[in-house]
Design a protein that fits this description.
4-stranded antiparallel β-sheet; single chain; alpha+beta; rod-shaped; 3-stranded antiparallel β-sheet
Length: 174
């Protein structure tokens, strides 16, 4: 072979050359694998219902013609003081190219204040949000129930009846 017989290239230089070529191919293949796992996904929907419990819904999609394997999504809920009040996950997500998946989580509300829910979609077991991340705000209004709602309607009715009676009495005396 021409390269082996060349006086310019020694055996040591050839070994070093093939070592560098092999290492380059290995690094390139690892880079392509990581890039494939870390992209091509979007959190297309993130909502939270008011009520108790509040239901968080996230819809994730593999877009860009790539499938997503071995990824996870986590949720965190913060109150108005940015204190973590709830978390869920990681939930494993694997999607074919163009596919979507809905992920739901029910959370017991602890108050009436506005809350912020964050969704973080990461490759593998990491929590770096390299695929996508989003957040939304919602107001949690716990339900008072049928019985307490009925009492409230009765009390409002009594108040209107008394105000009407006072207006009729005031009109008759003038």
């Amino acid at each position: 072979m021409y390269f082996r017989d060349s006086p310019i290239l020694s055996a040591r230089t050839l070994r070093l050359f093939w070592y560098v070529v092999g290492l380059s191919v290995l690094c390139f293949s690892i880079f392509c694998t990581v890039a494939k796992a870390a992209g091509g996904g979007t959190i297309t929907l993130l909502t939270a219902s008011s009520g108790n419990p509040s239901t968080v819904l996230a819809r994730v999609a593999a877009d860009g013609g790539k499938k997503i394997n071995n990824s996870n999504i986590t949720f965190q809920i913060y109150d108005k003081n940015l204190t973590l009040v709830g978390s869920y996950g990681p939930v494993s997500v694997s999607l074919a190219a163009g596919a979507t998946q809905d992920i739901t989580w029910s959370w017991n509300v602890n108050g009436f204040e506005p809350f912020t829910v964050n969704a973080c979609w990461s490759p593998g077991d990491s929590g770096n949000c390299k695929i996508d991340a989003t957040s939304t705000q919602f107001n949690a209004v716990p339900s008072i129930g049928f019985f307490l709602g009925g009492i409230a309607v009765v009390l409002i009715g009594v108040w209107f009846w008394r105000v009407r009676r006072q207006m009729v009495t005031a009109k008759a005396s003038s």
